[in-house]
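Structural prep section.
Before we set up the soaks we want a predicted structure of the protein with S-adenosylmethionine in place, mainly to decide which crystallisation condition to try first. Input record follows.
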Amino acid sequence: MFSITSRDLEKKILGCGDGPASFNAELAAKGGDVISIDPIYQISSSQIQSRIEDVYPKIMEQVSKNTADYVWDNIRDVEELGKVRMEAMKTFLRDYEDNQKSGRYINASLPILPFKDKEFDLALCSHYLFLYSKHVNLHEHIEAMKELCRVSREVRVYPLLSLSNNQESPHIHPVMAELEKKGVEVSLVPVKYEFQKGATKMLVAKQENIILSIRKHNRNRFHHRRQNLN
Ligand SMILES: C[S@@+](CC[C@H](N)C(=O)[O-])C[C@H]1O[C@@H](n2cnc3c(N)ncnc32)[C@H](O)[C@@H]1O
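Run finished without errors. Recording the tokens verbatim:
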């Protein structure tokens, strides 16, 4: 979903809103440098486990009712989806229990992150921003993306569809415009992964070097002046 390359995996990575996903556990086991944040990390592993046991059957029931909204290629059916997701959560729970003191799981919430400017090379945010556009408003999206761009050189967000109607989130373009105003380079990049039908793009935001940004600004001004003279 993020078009991750082997070079990306060597970067210092922030997983934002990672919840009970296994990316952190799997990458750290391979020697990767990764930190996850989520407000759910304020509770213990057994509390997270009972929350998963409580919520998961309901999520599976929802997916069963709306199978047409998903692409069943890599995962064949709802039963297999349940197994794959449960395996990932078990991997997470083992790691979270063992490594809670390692500092790889931090209790924090957007839009305020406890990190220095550009502490990370790459921040990844999946299934939180844009997906919950009905509950997280435009202002909150803008503040969250600005904060992610503050702490990381590059930010990738996926998916960009709203869960409520499977349509592109209404916040995408206003957020992109706001980031561009701040000198952040933004683009919508196609990805190969597609599970939620139509979720085929990620948002990539890169903070240009400030010098380059000033040069670009001056170049644009020069270009406009020349056009006016013509
Ligand atoms: C649907 S889960 C996605 C988990 C994981 N990223 C994945 O793709 O499987 C959404 C996550 O966003 C987290 N979340 C909610 N509010 C948040 C906030 N303000 N900042 C960061 N994460 C938040 C939730 O606790 C939850 O774990």
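Observations: The CA atoms of residues 39 and 108 lie 5 Å apart.
Flagged for discussion at group meeting.
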